[in-house]
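Lab channel / #folding
Pinned by the channel admin:
"Please post every new chain as: sequence first, then the structure tokens as a reply. Keep commentary short and put observations after the output so the thread stays searchable."

First post following the new format, from NK:
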Amino acid sequence: MSDLERYSFNKEKNRNEEIVLLKGNGCFWKKCSFCDYYLDRANSKEAIEINQTVLSKITGRSSRLTVINSGSFFELPKETIESIKEIVINKEITDLSIEAHLKYIDKVIELKDEYRKLGISVHPRIGIETFDESIREDLFKKGFGKLDLDKVKQVFDECCLLYGVKGQNKETLLEDIKIATSNFKDVYLNIYEQRTGLPSDPELIKEFIGELYPELNKIQNLHILINNTDLGVG
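Reply from TO:
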């Protein structure tokens, strides 16, 4: 993966943000049936070197930065986390989006408080995938159990949804989008690209692109990613 695939500038729906894809030690969970992103990992020394190269591209031109690392923010090397903080301060970035598993909710709260004292807003993003508990837990293996939405939305500003897996349907998708866009500032709908043994549903995806996408894409706080590289990294 080249440096260009780890840094991008996104203007989609006027979000205007710099995005970096960094390396950590891999997602602690590694059990989600749809995901192999945790394979994008490295030992601390290698990760720090790669991350420094990517972070050096940040200009601060939009005052907004999103950090992605194929896992949770807290699984980055501590040196990288400190570098991010220095860059955010020095480049006068006012809004920082990060990703984190529900397990890290207490750390997310601490991070938000830490940055708030610096005048910086942290916008945590969580991969909920679907609000249908049976699909999320039995099929996707997220490991959340029963989701306390009120608690989650008090801490996380953004969420990710996943669609296009056999067993899903457009009725549950529309319900997911309704719940997500009503409770989170920004919502990312990822169309499933089969990367594991969990089968995709090509007909469901075809129906989505042909029938649902044109109208759903008009929702201002819904960002639809047909391909996992649509934000310019990956």
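NK: The chain has seven helices and eight strands.
TO: also worth noting, Helices lie at 44-55, 78-90, 105-116, 133-139, 149-155, 170-183, 202-216.
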